[in-house]
Amino acid sequence: MLKKNMVKIILDVSMAVTFVLLMNPRVFNGLPFHEVAGLVIGVAVLVHIALNYKWVVNTTKKIFDRSLSGKTRFSFLLNVLLLLSMSGIIVTGILISKVVFPHLLSGENHALREIHDVFSKLTLLLVGVHIALHWQWIMGVFRKMFKTKEGNWNKKVIVTSVLILALFVGSMQWLATNVKVDEAFKPKFEQKVAQASGTFTPPGKFREREFPHKEHHGNSHPLLVILGHFTFWAVVIVPVYYIEKRMRHKRQVRV
Questions:
Q1: Is 192 contained in some domain?
Q2: In a 3-state reduction of DSSP, which class is residue 133?
Q3: How many Cα atoms within 13 Å fall on the side-chain side of residue 102?
Q4: Does residue 196 sit within a domain?
Q5: What is the C-alpha to C-alpha distance for residues 31 and 210, in angstroms, rounded to an integer?
Q6: Keywords, A to Z (predicted)?
């Protein structure tokens, strides 16, 4: 059971880090990394659902059962909303793709891009609430992972975690280095941006001009992007966690 929970935690942390990096499309090499990592996230979501398959099936069967706790019912609804919003991100992302699926839609579709951004921000908020509801479980798994029954640090798990983290960072770097934009696509895209803005885009400025939206400007350093969005999650997690804790205490008092 602990091994399965470890796999879940490692997968979820990797998904969380990758997702916040995708919130700024200028991270790493820009559009290529953004699209490829987005598809990887889609696969990871399916794996996440598979790992929680029994809970999904059992909760679905009991969703209208009065014996089901309010927290479980709310968590189920939240997961459904998360699945829908993630699906919205992936579908709109594929439709506006310029690297992986460059020929699905011709021209710029600003409406789809705006919908893509809305789904992304909604998902960011929902993930924060999701983490808050599972905070006790997360901390419990981490304690069991890194501490032995005697209360000492589990060196094997720490070393394994460091190696997995190194592999994760290495895979991110590999994507950023090896996934490139089709050279034939660059001039066409630059020309469209130049025509829309009335300015000339010098060669080599493709990465900076990929996303002219105001919200995509600013520092795109990966660590700062992660820190900024994890801070946002902290702002969401803290109040939701304590509200849920207070409600749980009230239920225990009633019983």
A1: no
A2: helix
A3: 12
A4: no
A5: 7
A6: Membrane, Transmembrane, Transmembrane helix
The residue written with tokens 């919205």 in the block is 88
CA distance 124 to 117: 11
Q: How far apart are CA 50 and CA 214, in angstroms?
A: 37
| Domain extent at residue 128 | 2-179+213-254
The confidence score (pLDDT) of residue 154 equals 78
CA distance 141 to 207: 40
The whole-chain average pLDDT of the chain stands at: 80
Domain count, the chain: 1
DSSP annotation of 24 reads S
* Residues 82-115: tens digit of each pLDDT: 999 999 999 999 999 888 888 777 666 789 999 9
Altogether, the residues listed in the chain come to a count of 255
Residues forming a β-bridge with 153: 147
State the pLDDT confidence band at 28, using cuts at 50, 70 and 90: confident
In this prediction the pTM is 0.77
| Axis crossing angle, helix 31-51 with helix 70-95, rounded to the nearest 10 | 150
Using pLDDT thresholds of 50, 70 and 90, give the confidence band for residue 16: very high
Whether residue 82 lies inside any domain: the answer is yes
Distance CA 179, CA 38 (A): 13
